[in-house]
Write the structure tokens for this entry.
Amino acid sequence: MVGKYLKTTALALALGGWAGMAGAADPSLDLVGPLSDYKIYVAENTGKLVEDVTAFTAAVKAGELDKAKSLFAPTRTSYEKIEPIAELFSDLDSSIDARADDFEKAEQDPEFTGFHRIEYGLWHEGSTDGLGEYADKLLADVQTLNDRINALTFPPEVVVGGAAVLMEEVAATKISGEEDRYSRTDLWDFDANFEGAEKIYTLLRPMVAADAEFTSKVDGNFKAVADVLSKYRTPEGGFVSYEELTDTDRNVLSAKVNTLAEDLATLRGKLGLG
Amino acid sequence: MTTPSKGIYLAILGAAALAVAGGAAFWYASQQKPQTVADQLVIVDAATCQPATITIPGGRRSFEIVNASDRPIEWEILDGVMVVAERENIAPGFRATLQVALQPGEYDITCGLLSNPRGKLTVTASDEATAAASEVTLRKFLGPLSEYRVYLVMQGNAAVKCAQTLRDAIAAGDLDAARDAWRQARLPYRRIEPLAYRISDLKNAIDPSAAYLAGREDDPAFTGYHRIEYGLFSQNSTDGLQPVADKLLTDLEQLAARLKALPLDPALLTALPGDMTSQLAQARVPQGENPYAGNDLQDFAASLEGIAKLSGLLRQVVASVDPGLDQGIAQDLQAAQDGVAALQSKHRSYGDVPPAARQALATDLTNLADSLGKLQPVIGIN
């Protein structure tokens, strides 16, 4: 435990302390292309999120337990891909994606809502009973999120820093399997988090391609992660339960994700947005 | 099998010592009031921030956050619901630093559990904050330029989609559906016209007026939106319009691709809304532009949406540099939008709008163009 905390805190210090001072260059107008392409990517995902949450919450409200359970993980992926932007809105991030242990009374806390509250009902309580109001709120919240994101001018440093933020979150609070604790669908979330981080990196990659050592290292680590995750894919396009992840593979993922977080954290400095 | 070596015992002893040291460090961090080199130290315990009320001068400030609770926390500075800055995943007993550029104002700070009460951060005026606010940098334009490119792509795609609907209605020979589709098809084009009209080869194919062509409606160069308008609203037929609609669709697809690839820069962005507004004021509002359909007011409203998008993005840059100009643009834009809305409520066709009313709207637009024209000297960079 202490070792894990040491690692993440060292990382947090590295991100907060050094990245800010590493302003190697002024930002370039070349960032406009990647930044706007990223917003289009996010907008496509929030559009999909609204569509998927509509179907998911309809199943919950219709009392279709099995269907609701099967839609839970795929519905979350469009949120997980765009978390660096979604979590700019603190009220919605709390009501859509907070976990029980963010609240004083945990699962019994009246403020505990959103995906994980519904997940708790579907898996832990094995029923859709009483989930109707959470379903309504979740749908309203993702619609508001979609509107707010469409109206938002994305802060460049949040986009560029977002790749590292996603990886840091996976390393610190997801690889342990605490995100989707009732459904054990964590691997879906990991995959979406990696895709979201890789999207940002891929868009910015031409601007840092001169540093071949950097790009080949990051490319290799993304590939290594994809290779591990591919072992756990199901024929239907999803993922097996998180419990099937072997310790060896968890360690590989953990190591890669930490390295990715550290490397991607240098993007802001490299691109003059420190 | 041999008995465990002395080395193993030493290793176990060492590990135990490390564990004790780790525990001691944890205890120390949670019990002591640590020193800090940051501008502000914040200790987050199980229930609150210490201090929970902070006042700090504006500018680039550093915070050192100590997690004295027994669970990982994130610490955020909030402006309303928006996260201004955050430091995530601070483990129990550890500390993290956060650097953030702060403008004067009232902010909330989070303190551990979502159910814990938030603290208050008051940022006061300072020379450093004033200097940072008034400085115009390329970095401040990156967000607005990117957002405008998104708008160009979205509206460019919408223009293509609307032109497909128009072409399909014409192909089906459905006059009423084609007229509705034509009115809708103009709107996305008008929104992005501030940049689209600068691409002159496409503009001459997409949006020529018969009034400017030697052979007027019979001129072979009379193509695009207004040629279709002439057929649908003056000749009251879809006959012969299909090739024109096909060509319009192809031209708009090209336009969307060219707009997407066009490099944007601060000088261009700054010039676009004022230029478009002047054009409206000087020519289109006095004379009208859709002589056969008469729905000019609907077009003007869409033009103003495009101008409002650009103005809103530039206001993000100018707001802290020249608040008076920022407010002036907002008021003039509102007046012009109100002017169009008032005429829309009174007149079905622009042909019924008398010259004096057109002149009044043109004056509102001239005022707006004048305000937008002041942007270049205030935030212009090259």
